[in-house]
């Protein structure tokens, strides 16, 4: 049953949203509850609100999202969502910023949670109304705390998370069994120290005869950062980026992380100079037993029939922590948003979240807890085996220049790749990265 519409901002307090709600009366029955209808009927239904939706999801993710949009359109004849898929990374975020600033913004868009600090303070996004979200069953207790908190800026909710996509550890179950590193439950044994991880990887290397671990990083700042930041945060270390001030870091923790990564890249545990494609192919072909990757590679493993399972990256340095990001829904800023269309956006987003079990099939951890806690999710393996990672997520340190698809991780690579190639001292390489951050912190956010 589709919930009855609730006027946006109807809290009894005079706000911009309540003014919009008053204007909505001009639309007559725009806020009336609607029944169910097929997709084709929705598209052609007279009076249906036409919603523009931008995102950067392609490949398997794009197919899954298209299915969710079709399902929402079919279930809700009061709106029809049209997708626009743009190029991932800088092109997408640049165009989204320009559209918001120029008065040509879509009704709703996808944004990585890590990009929020660069957009919300600059006025490029509108906040979500918590009361209206709650009317559609979207409340704080519906999300893991780290995900919910990552969606706020300046005390207001500027994004609604669809998922978490953490960096995880995949493993070949047949190789692990031959290496004697599976527990009685058929899953990888608990690993709680750097030394034990090295031991497990070496045992797997004996089985494969090539490598124990696949980790591709060459020319890929994102890959370098994901693993580094996981180990850094596992030491309880923070990285604070305050505009106009020098970065606050734990240099010793950073050096420990980088030196452990050097240990792994010894041409026996893992190749010393592999790129992402090489690492992926190596693991798929059974030439390694472990693979550091994101959850998004699960469809690749499924298609290749790799005998595998997965787990959150083991806590090697004391504090449970993993690097992650989230796809979130945002409201690109509009000077005069149409209240009827915006109301339908809330319904659309709630519909997608509640049906995100199909999104989980692509590997992502649904942010909406009723989906993860439902019986269908428990049957998804290996997804159910790494779902607990959502409780220990760590997004990029907040700054206007950080986040997925930004240059932040490229700046990391510029200073750290030579460290991983054993051409630069770990401390000197990290200090170069810190100097680069200090230059950025001295500059204002260009999208304000």
UniProtKB/TrEMBL annotation:
Signal sequence extent: none
InterPro entries given in the database record: Bact_solute-bd_prot1, SBP, TAT_signal
Protein's name in the database: Extracellular solute-binding protein
Upper classification of the organism: Bacteria, Bacillati, Actinomycetota, Actinomycetes, Micrococcales
